[in-house]
Design goal:
6 helices, 9 strands, globular, two-stranded antiparallel ribbon, alpha/beta
Length: about 180
């Protein structure tokens, strides 16, 4: 098309990504880091809020929390999967907790049955850092679709790459519009 940013090819890619993931919306960004930051911003995470996440991840997961003025709270990992441990998430929740960022480490999905129950019971958002997991599935559902917003990276070291780039996926139109 001759258009490098936005334009018809970006729209087409967003539509195809949403269809592939099984979500209503996908929004392309310049990186997975930008996706995580955008997700937290869209969800209204801000100063003095707490976001529970895993310490076993790339620094961008915690940095994006700090970029919003919020505090990262690190939950332990499960010794068998190295993913965030739902029991530890429960122990870390306070009145200031607003969200959980999971990390689908090396394509291995977190225990979303437990995590989403914890989130629902405590009125918390779930942001799925699926930067390393595009295409991974559990019970016919793809990575990026288990939380309120899923985030992917297309950096050079990821399993689908274009050198740089990222995306968020969601079924919530307001989040996609923001």
């Amino acid at each position: 098309s001759g258009v490098i940013a936005q334009g018809p090819k970006v729209k087409e890619a967003e539509e195809k990504l949403a269809e592939y993931c099984g979500t209503k919306y996908a929004v392309l960004l310049n990186s997975g880091t930008a996706g995580l930051h955008t997700a937290l911003h869209v969800l209204g995470i801000g100063k003095d809020d707490e976001v529970i996440t895993t310490p076993f991840t790339f620094i961008a997961t915690a940095n994006t929390i700090l970029m919003q003025g919020a505090k990262p709270v690190f939950a332990d990992v499960d010794a068998n999967t190295f993913n965030i441990d739902p029991k530890s998430i429960k122990e870390k929740i306070t009145k200031k907790t607003k969200a959980i960022i999971t990390v689908d480490l090396y394509g291995h999905l977190c225990d979303y049955n437990q995590i989403n129950k914890i989130a629902k019971d405590n009125k918390l958002f779930v942001v799925e850092d699926a930067c390393q997991a595009i295409g991974a599935e559990f019970n016919g559902k793809k990575a990026g679709t288990f939380g309120d917003i899923g985030v992917f990276s297309f950096y050079a070291t990821k399993n689908i790459t274009c050198g740089e780039g990222g995306a968020i996926v969601t079924n919530n139109r307001d989040y996609a519009d923001k």
